[in-house]
Amino acid sequence: NGENIYGYDERRRLLSDCGMEICLSLYYLRVCGMRGEEFFALLTDLYDVRDIVCGENYTFGSDRCDVGKLGELCRAKGISLTVMPLYDYCGVRVSSTAVKTFLRTGDVDAAKKLLGMSYHIRGTVESGDGRGHRIGMPTVNIGRPADMMEIRRGVYGTYTELDGKMYRSVTNYGARPTFDRSAFSIETNLMGYEGGSLLGKEITVYFHRYLRPVRKDDKPRQGVERLMIRIGPSGNSLSFYAEGHTRTVEAAEWVAARGLNAFEYSFGRGVGIKEESAREIGAKFAECGVEISS
Fold first, then answer.
1. Spatial separation of the C-alpha atoms in residues 69 and 92, rounded to whole Å
2. Are 93 and 57 in contact (CB under 8 A)?
3. Which of 10, 83, 174, 211 yields a CA-CA distance of 20 to 30 A from 120?
4. Which pTM does this prediction carry?
5. Could you tell me the pLDDT band of residue 4, with boundaries at 50, 70 and 90?
6. What is the pLDDT of residue 135?
7. CA distances from 288 to 4, 245, 254, 282 (A)
8. Strands (E), the chain
9. What single-letter DSSP state applies at residue 40?
10. SS3 letters across 82-102
């Protein structure tokens, strides 16, 4: 179904990464109505079972047999049973239910702590409509496996793995209202990638942090500007004063002349600026294209 944390193919890959050499699957529709003893008999008839491993809250069969019943069945067949204890992390029971709850609310950092790895989606780059390239923000598109759950829609800070190299990225997970597209998409902008077309390439998008909901920009370029990295000083530096500057309003041109585009107004001794001065500083920084924060 579409409520799995990872799709079937990805689960097989993760099991392989853990050292599992063979993974055999049963058709769910064939076994979903079986009682516990019937299901156990099927497994032991089909395979030469030597050892069974499960969690202490494991249940099986339509009658929800527990590990106590499983122990009885294993002893009768001479099969070893290993029961793994439940595990809590910072007061939260580690379980697929908890992970899903975090993912549905966009808390991918909490999900990572329970999973032991960043939540990720692996896929092959599909053809898009090319709008990103035309507005200076080329993106790559991948699909979500049908058997994989949907997490909270929105914009995420991500890392994307391509050909063994990791790129910082920003991913839009959901609709694209800026372009009046309501269809679901997973669209990622790779920062620093300067290669050619990635169509048909396999990439893995690792979700690092939820940034904001999906929203419509009046102009596509506004979305690009929001993703730009801004760099600048925090407060006025010694070199600023050494050059004879005395007022913060002068920092706007000083910062812009050095190719920087951000400035943090520091209130180390409390907020003591007059409204008139604040408006003057704000207007000057806006004129110079430097974003100011406090």
1. 27
2. no
3. 83
4. 0.68
5. very high
6. 40
7. 50, 17, 10, 10
8. 51-55, 80-84, 88-89, 92-93, 120-124, 140-142, 154-162, 165-176, 181-190, 202-212, 262-264, 291-293
9. H
10. EEECCCEECCEECCHHHHHHH
